[in-house]
Write a structure and sequence with these properties.
The complex is a heterodimer of chains A (204) and B (294). With 204 residues, chain A is of the alpha/beta class. Chain A starts with a strand and ends in a 19-residue tail after the last helix. Chain A contains five helices and twelve strands. The longest helix of chain A is centred in the first third of the chain and has 10 residues. Chain B has a single domain, classed as Aldolase class I (TIM Barrel, Alpha-Beta Barrel), CATH 3.20.20. Chain B contains 13 helices and nine strands. An eight-stranded parallel β-sheet of chain B has the order 8-7-6-5-4-3-2-9. Chain B is globular. Chains A and B meet through α1, α2 and β7 of A and β1, α1, α2 and α12 of B.
Chain lengths: 204, 294
């Protein structure tokens, strides 16, 4: 069984855990560096990126997260999670993790009253995907190796850079698990050979 | 086919606040301190609840200049309070682009009978509740997020604990009930039958529920998380303490790691004096903010 961590400092943690479990994988809430051990992939959820960043720094998670990225294991960021992954954030001098070759701009669709939902056409996913955008960022530009998976109103809202997947909307707020499934398919199957562990997730 | 102001968009915004701390601020400087400390949102106000309580008189929506100043100062969401039932204050805040409106009993109600019909607005609302019936009525009107009422501005956690335990006990009761008992329970609680069916099938409220009203220390914030709150609002507790920056950071960390008691002990050390609290029984029944609204 694949073991997928969900960074559980703040935000839509419960929803991602539910979605991972619905796709038949094991979900682990990650609060401390030790929780990153033995994971096959990691999800950085939606929430407030400034809050998550502060807690990442305070608990010494930055280096362990970058080391995790260096192992080549897949990482998936939604909304704030995408901001954490991005190599460049418009208006910020320093990136957060800075591992995914994209430039993102925060709150680029406006304030909460401008937040919206819309059906998206996503490359590699059949049929429209009902996406919820909340004070969402967008991807201003992508690196040479980065594949654009979805564009909405001329803004890039989903992309993949090798092991990194990022989207500016919240698939976790819907019952449609196709994007989680897509992320799980990026994880190699070696862990399926191991015996499954009992879920250590109880409450977030 | 783009849709704004849907339930999913409005409730989803509150989902992104989960595990976070929303702090009351009265100016741009406080807002920046709150953001730097890791607040997930700020509530722009003219006076914090303890000052409203002390000053008396009619408490209204804040001067739009204060709210605007706070909105310019930070990139996290900005919430603001409108009086219960004050349609125009709410519309003004919506027009200003405030991210969330608190239809709040901290302000003097504009309408003693009717709350706002919140599903008519694009901006989402948070409302206070003391029990499941009140939660049901606010959600029925369109609230996208709830919080306990507690007793604002007292620095006394007892009422917030009472309200959160009450809501959660009533949810557990509904979940355990058989379907044929739900209609009577709906009548008893003053909740709709459909709402109780939804709570029964979800096993929880359909919206996020934060704790508010009396949180003064990191341990208070952790206690509310322990009791099942999705996050906390801290009103007077931070900027009425001796050292707001440290208090704000400590409350954020205690909320994230609410079951790490050694950590909470560490971050509670030498924090200075918390806001001075008020014993609830010394507040005349007519002056309790939680009695506002129904």
């Amino acid at each position: 069984m694949k073991r997928v961590g969900v960074l559980a400092l703040q935000g839509a943690v419960r929803e991602h855990i539910k979605s991972v479990q619905a796709c038949g994988a094991e979900a682990i809430a990650v609060k401390w560096p030790k929780d990153l051990e033995n994971l096959d992939g990691l999800i950085l959820p939606g929430g407030e990126s400034t809050t998550m960043r502060r807690l990442i720094d305070h608990y010494g998670l930055m280096e362990p997260l970058r080391e995790f990225a260096q192992t080549g294991k897949p990482m998936f960021g939604t909304c704030a999670g995408l901001i954490l992954l991005a190599e460049t954030v418009v208006g910020n001098q320093d990136a957060h993790l800075g591992v995914m070759d994209v430039t993102v701009e925060r709150n680029s669709f406006g304030r909460q009253v401008d937040s919206f939902e819309a059906p998206l056409e996503i490359r590699d996913i059949d049929g429209p995907f009902e996406a919820v955008f909340i004070r969402a960022p967008h991807i201003v530009s992508v690196g040479e190796e980065t594949e654009v998976l979805c564009v909405h109103n001329e803004k890039i809202v989903m992309a993949k850079d090798g092991q990194f997947l990022g989207c500016s909307f919240h698939p976790e707020l819907t019952d449609d698990h196709r994007i989680t499934d897509y992320f799980l398919s990026m994880i190699q199957d070696k862990s399926d050979l191991l015996l499954p562990n009992p879920s250590t997730y109880s409450k977030v | 086919m783009t849709e704004q102001g849907t339930d999913r968009v409005k409730r989803g915004m509150a989902e992104m606040q989960k595990g976070g701390v929303i702090m009351d601020v009265v100016n741009a400087e406080q807002a920046r301190i709150a953001e730097a400390a890791g607040a997930t949102a700020v509530m722009a106000l003219e006076r914090v609840p303890s000052d409203i309580r002390r000053d008396g008189g009619v408490a209204r929506m804040a001067d739009p200049r204060i709210t605007e100043e706070v909105m310019k100062a930070v990139s996290i969401p900005v919430m603001a309070k409108a009086r219960i039932g004050h349609i125009v204050e709410a519309r003004i805040l919506e027009a200003m682009g405030v991210d969330y409106i608190d239809e709040s009993e901290v302000l003097t109600p504009a309408d003693e009978e009717f709350h706002l019909l919140k599903n008519q607005y694009t901006v989402p609302f948070v409302c206070g509740c003391r029990n499941l019936g009140e939660a049901a009525r606010r959600i029925g009107e369109g609230a996208s997020m709830l919080r306990t009422k507690g007793e604002p501005g007292t620095g006394n956690i007892v009422e917030a604990v009472r309200h959160l335990r009450q809501v959660n006990a009533e949810i557990r009761k509904v979940v355990a009930m058989s379907e044929d008992e739900l209609m009577t329970e709906a009548r008893n609680l003053g909740a709709s039958y459909e709402f109780l069916k939804e709570v029964k099938s979800l096993g929880r409220l359909p919206v996020v529920n934060f704790a508010a009203g009396g949180i003064a220390t990191p341990a208070d914030a952790a206690l509310m998380m322990e009791l099942g709150a999705d996050g906390v609002f801290v009103g007077s507790g931070i900027f009425k303490s001796d050292n707001p920056e440290r208090f704000a950071r400590a409350i954020v960390e205690a909320t994230t790691h609410y079951q790490d008691y050694k950590l909470i002990a560490e971050l509670s050390k030498d924090l200075g004096i918390a806001m001075k609290g008020i014993e609830i029984s010394t507040i005349a029944a007519g002056e309790r903010m939680q009695e506002r609204g129904w």
